[in-house]
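FORM 7B: Structural annotation worksheet

SECTION A. Query
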Amino acid sequence: MALAALACSFAAEQTAPSQEASAAAKEQATETKGLPARAAPTDYQSRAKVGKLTVAADFQVHAVPTPEATFNNEDYVVVEVAIFGPPDARVKLSPNDFSLRINEKKNALDSRPPSTTFSSLKDPSWEPPDTGASKSKNGINAGGGGQQDSAPVVVHMPFPLQRAMEQKVMKAALPEGDRALPQAGLLFFSYHGKEKGIHSVELTYQGPDGKALLRLTP
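SECTION B. Predicted structure
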């Protein structure tokens, strides 16, 4: 009996650290939901100090980069942002801490939830299948009495592919809540203009540690 009790005690001691390690791994995976941060703030276009933190960012225009693929969105512009800090530093993150000013407009753009961008999100690598419909604008009708315009055939991306694309974008968005640093992710701002019409871009961050202005490259 004594040997059995000793064996149970030893097994419990060996299991506890394993369970703790598993819980820590799960917490770390949860806290690194967004894009992986690059090696250093200097790997981004622009950087600014905010107290003990460094905010860094790249302006991606209408591109939507994710670890798996890069999509595009003509109705939104995207900023890839990262926040760095000293070892063991944490910060409360929110996309609402960021705003974007384009071409020195009076009113800055507020960050939008990634789900609002899905209706205009596109995968440039996906091509619709050939439906066999005529691509000619003019054709002879069945009665031979004249010409008629053929209506364009609209083919939508299959739902499973569309859903997978949306999930990749959601995962790449800047995570929210109390997070261990560094953290990185995407911010989305409603803007329908073409890239060639963008002359200046300013990202403002106002969070728990203070306020910073980052001038980005169009």
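SECTION C. Observations
Helices lie at 2-31, 159-172. The CA atoms of residues 53 and 102 lie 25 Å apart.

SECTION D. Sign-off
Analyst initials: ____
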